[in-house]
Amino acid sequence: MRTCMFCHELADTGEDAWPQWLIKRFPSSDVARTYLERVERAVNSWHTRKPKLVVKRVCSGCNNGWMSRLEDEAKPVMESILDGHLTSLDPSAQLTLAKWAVKTAMVLEALDSSRPWFYSENERWLMREAQKIPVRTWAWIAKCIHHPHIYSVKKDLSTVRCDGGPRAIATTMAFGFLAFQVVSIRTLPETPTHDPVSYEVSNGPWEQTLVQIWPISDRLLTWPPDYGLDGDWGLDTLTERLSAAKWQSTDVASAE
Questions:
Q1: Phi, psi of 92, deg, nearest 5
Q2: Contact at 8 Å (CB) between 216 and 94?
Q3: Does residue 32 contact residue 26 with C-beta atoms inside 8 Å?
Q4: What is d(CA 213, CA 208) in angstroms, rounded to the nearest whole number?
Q5: Which percentage of the chain shows pLDDT scores above 90?
Q6: Which of 168, 180, 158 is nearest to 137 (CA)?
Q7: Segment 192-227, tens digit of pLDDT
Q8: Which of 156, 106, 154 minimizes the C-alpha distance to 127?
């Protein structure tokens, strides 16, 4: 008997990984879903003409409660972006998009039951109770061009495979011309929470391409950015922005 991934209640309902209002904007969309691991190149990669993805690891209380409220909060912001009406992001909009993106990254993990989830039970519980974003998490949005469908990639950035070792994960999603990337890092248990970590990124005009929504800025952020990601190729480049070979766990420099 499966329990809800966000609480210990019976998982008696299905949660749409992609909300229905968003799917309706891409009714005949190809959905690209690829799970990339540290050693293997492509794991479980496929396209489908039906973008509906249901996760059966959520209870009705979560689905119809805090998750529904978060969806209602994020929908007008995302629709304003997709409709081309939004030209700036205030701190409230940044926070709303970041919470939605991290929640969605957590939900997408439940689609792959063969691998341990990255986000811990406590992190999922805190998301449920207070929509609290895990420590050492960053989130960005970007503009896509020539991209009429939905895209989702999860990449394991861990450099070692051992329990309790440093780990990192990146989830990249796109809905038409709006892309998200969420990166979370888990350090060694003895590393103080306030200690910074570092990672390297591939060469590219990322400052002109990505708008950081978490941690939030106390100023208005201009949207859209100067550069866009060109189709699936651009999104694949974003996914490869951080690599396992470059992931640093030295805890000596601030993260980008």
A1: -65, -45
A2: yes
A3: no
A4: 14
A5: 53
A6: 168
A7: 777 777 777 888 999 999 999 999 999 999 999 999
A8: 106
pTM for this predicted structure: 0.87
Residues in the chain, overall count: 256
> What is the Cβ-side half-sphere exposure of residue 99, based on CA atoms within 13 angstroms?
24
pLDDT tens-digit map of 165-192: 678 899 999 999 999 999 998 887 777 7
Tell me phi and psi for residue 180, to 5 degrees: -125, 150
- Taking the CB of residue 127, how many other CB atoms lie within 10 A of it? 24
3-state secondary structure the chain: CCECCCCCCECCEEEECCCHHHHCCCCCCCEEEEEECCCCCCEEEECCCCCCCEEEEECHHHHHCHHHHHHHHHHHHHHHHHCCCCCEECHHHHHHHHHHHHHHHHHHHCCCCCCCCCCCHHHHHHHHHHCCCCCCEEEEEEEEECCCCEEEEEEECCCCCCCCCCEEEEEEEEECCEEEEEEEEECCCCCCCCCCCCECCCCCCHHHHEEEEECCCCCCEECCCCCCEEHHHHHHHHHCCCCCCCECCCCCCCCC
Tell me the backbone φ, ψ of residue 183, rounded to 5 degrees: -120, 125
